[in-house]
Amino acid sequence: MYHLRSIGLLVCLVSISAQAAEKVPLPKTAEGWKIELTAQAPNILFPTAIVTATDGTLYIGQDPMDMPGPPTQPIDSVVSFKDGKVKVFAEKLWSVMGLEWFQNTLYVVHAPYLSAFRDTDGDGKADSRVDLMTGLGPKLPGFNGINDHVPSGIRLGMDGYLYIAIGDKGIPKGVGKDGTTIQLFGGGVIRIRPDGTGLEVVSTGERNPLSVALSATDDVFTYGNDDDSKKWPNSLTHHIVGGHYGYPYEFLLAPNRALPIVAGQIGGSGAQGLCYNEDGLPSSYRGNLFFCDWGLSTVFRYQVERTGATFRLKEKTPFVTKGDLADFRPFSLAVSADGESLWLVDWAFNSWLADGPQTGRLYHLTYEGPDRPEKVARPQGDDPTVQLAALDHPALAVRLESQRRLAQLGANQVGPLTARLKKSEPELGRLHALWALDAIDTTEAREAIGSVLADDQVEVRLQAARHAGIRRDRKLLTGLTSLLRDRDPAVRREAAIALGKLGDPGAVPSLMAALGDPDTVTSWAIRHAIRELKAWDEESLVQALLDDQRRDDTLKLTDEAWALPVVQALVKALTATESSVIRSRIVSTIGGLYRQYAPWTGQWFGTNPLAGQLPQKTVDWDRTAMANVLRGLALGLEDRDPAVRAQAIIAFRTIGPETVPYLRSRLMKETDEPNLRGLIEALGLLGDVHASTNLAIIAQDPKRSETIRGSALDALGRLGGAQVLRARLSFVYDPKAPVSLIARALPELGREGVLPANDVAAFLEHSTAEIRQAALLAFNPKRKLPEEVRQAVIDRLTDKSPEVRKTAIEVLARLNIREAIPRLLAMANENQVSDEATMALAVMPDPQALPIYLAAIQNRNPELRRAGETALLAIRDRVAGDLTKSLQSGKLNGPATMSLERVLARFQPIADWRVIGPFPRTTAQVFVSETAIDFSRSHTGAAGQTIAWTPRKAEPVTGRVPLNDFKKGAGDRGGFGYDTNGSPNLCAFAYAEVPSDRDRTALLLVGSSGPITLTINERVVHSESSQAGRPYSPDSDLVRVELKKGQNRVLVVSRQGIGAWSFSVRISEPSSISLAARPEANTPERLQAFALSHDGDSRKGESLFFDPKGIGCVKCHSAAGQGMANAGPDLTGLALKYDKAEIIRSVLEPSNRLATGYQPVLLSMQDGKVLTGLVRSESETEIELVDVNTKVTRISKNQVEERRVSDVSLMPKGLADTLSPVEFADLISFLQTLKSAPASPAAP
């Protein structure tokens, strides 16, 4: 544990002269600025937040909790810095992430507390602590191993509130000093008065804003960081009271339910900053935002300007960059007390959670440009007249101080302040007079503020409206409703917010009349105010829904507004409007109101919430309202317009099985074919056995289209019962049945085992190739086939249809009909079916096929390479001599050489391990670089438990080391209170020693259920970072390593992943093979460098892309109007969105950014298996997965133990391994030609 070495010790820091003499490397600043290193570790350690007191003293947070740790014990501190000396001011704190100074008090955000510290005896150390808020974040914010995503930056506004940025771990239950409670799901902003009263949520829907910055007029800005999905950016956000900005879900899935951010970019990691509002710098800096970006090693300057009721980014420029510093990690900024310079805190380390490094720097930035302004004298003394005049000072700090002093003088200042408020110029002084009156809060003071609600100056009206809302002054209701028609959208916004806070239902008619405001943010504020008042009026809602100007806003207002009058109004409006478009929207809105979301449990959703289970509406509410929802949807289902009926079908299907009577009643009446198909599919997915009779009638009706009959047949396949089976069998044996339906029915019936093998074989002679192909797919591999049937399958190898021949090859392998091997050997040399024959021969390994397997491991197709290697492993002992000769010939390419080395090597599991865990998900690499680990030492693990090293044996064959006991039977489903999805939650370490009688090259086979890092002799030799986990296999990864003579130290860092937590390591025996010298590999780095510096031939690249027997891009992707595959996104228009470097990265690192809609899921099954693929369809009871080979698997949900969205692309690893640099450049050049926008789908 970290300890301050000498509490209270004054330490002399680096002098400017010593700094110059040593030529300390410095960050690079913008033109006109000078930067100096003022302090550094070990005199300040792990610095975070910073603030300047009025006397010039700096207060700096120190965060050892998130470096040496532990992250679950209060060992942080705050130090003061003045005149080159450091002194401990407060200690035994939780993670210090926010500081503010006000009236000789230091306010410290150290979740789960907001505390006020004072030095009452003047010795430079706090002796008074008052906790103003408890529950500021989770009970143990560092539960995941690091205090991230927690409450951070804090700023005091002119309105007398402390504003605090909240990370997306949220606030399960925050309690102010007056007992007020709040809950905040996700990130946002809260506010509280300096005495701990008035606690409230300001805004929601942010990710991880570490900083809050206030403009001179209390506009609230935050700067955060992007998430692991790379969909949410580093966000610069302007916050309004009641605003929601869409994180973690709505910003992508339902953007109409969120306000937009000001600006953002993917990449980086936003930290803390400020808004410059002082007078010591040129006027061009006034109102600018400065934010540190830890990840980009840059301090950015943002210039914003008002647009409507919010702001837009005018310009963003680097202000401080890392220069010659490799480890520059800016964290926070503060303005000097005189306003003439800035202080900058540098974390000074490229990571966190490191036990050993002592890090941290403090820089001083001064402006030396020619336009440095003249300083305006600051007021002296306590004379109220002087302080009143100072309300017009150009420095915000001076104005705020004078405002507070006047407010402290109380009621006798109401007269002078009122006079100043009503004096038209300068405007800023009027605003501070207003808020001084607000703080005095007498009847006369309130009346004075109310008198300027209709003032000529926009900002005065706005601040007066803000005051009315904060004070909930119902006397100002009339004035506020008038402001809903103000010419300025920001004033209208604040008027709406204030009306929502009044709690007076009398405001509703005016707010309802204001719906349809043309400003996006103002219209949001109006809707939010109506929701806050909860005084729903059915008739006024109906009128608004029927009003062309207000309808759109009213539909947004009623969206997910669970109230009986809302549902009744929607149903009434549905029958009163003639517009089918509007009726469709109303039906969709009604459908979303059937159930509510489950209450938040307080658990975090992790760093990539889109990779987890999305919130589901599972909670029943008002029974009358729910019945009205069904009534409204029933009306929609009988609507005269098919588009309206379509929305009703979708809604009923989404609600679940209780809606099948409605869907069934419509089934035989529906005349629109797409809707009929939707009904059929819904009834099948919802498992409505009572619909089977009518489904059978539809399926057998020759007057129906084949599309409809096929859908009915598929739906029947999901239902049980003798009647259903008879209907399905009727297609197979009906000579008049359409070919497509017979072909559709055969495979499923065959796999279910209801068709005799001889009956299926009869279809192999059918005149239609489609049926012959379906018959082949109908054979059940679990049933033994008669000899004559087996021969009938082999005979299809000479079928006149190429597709039938290919299917026959696949089925022969699936049925393990080895009599076909001689025929397959010949076909492997036929260009048209060579790949299929090779795959079949790999499934049935035979030494006769050795040349074919050797060719396969050199193929460009990764799937063929894997299949060839698997087959060679099976026949290795019978062809070892030939394999050795091939390996030593030097004629194989890099991947093939590695493959043969793996085949010929004999592996033994590393059996004897020491293990320790569980640690939290985010864990310091505490053992990674240690040459001698103290195995007797205990450590602090997850949830603060004490853990120690214990011996553990691996399974004797696979080397699998089980770690599931570390989950304590619950793991990521709540065992330690961790996030329940999105990323692995726990970490463990394992150590073993491997002896070697000489220095040698060895191969390792590594398997894991989740991310794994492997070091040998303190050197990282392998890292697999599938954060969501992966199916465990003992040979997932092949790693080439160098062993030294003697004992080799092996350390594994294993994270939980999915399924049973485990890992395995097997190592090649010394005598198994002499590893060949490897040819120069086309590493990703080499391919990238070549393609960046060379232009390829796009025509050759196009041939590579569309060659199905090559790297196989076309198997999953279409592009430029060519190809039909949809396992991956259509790449048409790719070059419109990404530059060359990004296209290269996407090919070499396909998992780095997965396209929306193409993220695979991982399913951990009750039998221990883990399946992965894309979801093709899903019902209440089943999921259909499509794997990388487009194979569809239907899975019963009751067999699924855990589900996650994978962060690993289905695009195979090593796709470019067999391409030369020139060929790779050709492929990239072709992808760069894809600049045409994708075709829009046809209008319905």
From TrEMBL:
Task: Kindly list the residue ranges recorded as spanning the membrane.
Answer: none
Domain of life, per UniProt, equals Bacteria
Q: Is NAD found in the keyword set?
A: no
Cite the InterPro entries for this sequence.
6-blade_b-propeller_TolB-like, ARM-like, ARM-type_fold, Cyt_c-like_dom, Cyt_c-like_dom_sf, DUF7133, Haem-bd_dom_put, PBS_lyase_HEAT
GO MF terms listed in the record are: electron transfer activity; heme binding; metal ion binding
Provide the Cytochrome c domain boundaries: 1096-1235
Annotated signal peptide = 1-20
User: What keywords sit in the KW lines?
Assistant: Heme, Iron, Metal-binding, Signal
Which Gene3D superfamilies does the UniProt entry name for this protein? Cytochrome c-like domain (1.10.760.10), Leucine-rich Repeat Variant (1.25.10.10), TolB, C-terminal domain (2.120.10.30)
Q: What is this protein called?
A: HEAT repeat domain-containing protein
**Which organism is this protein's natural source?**
Singulisphaera sp. Ch08
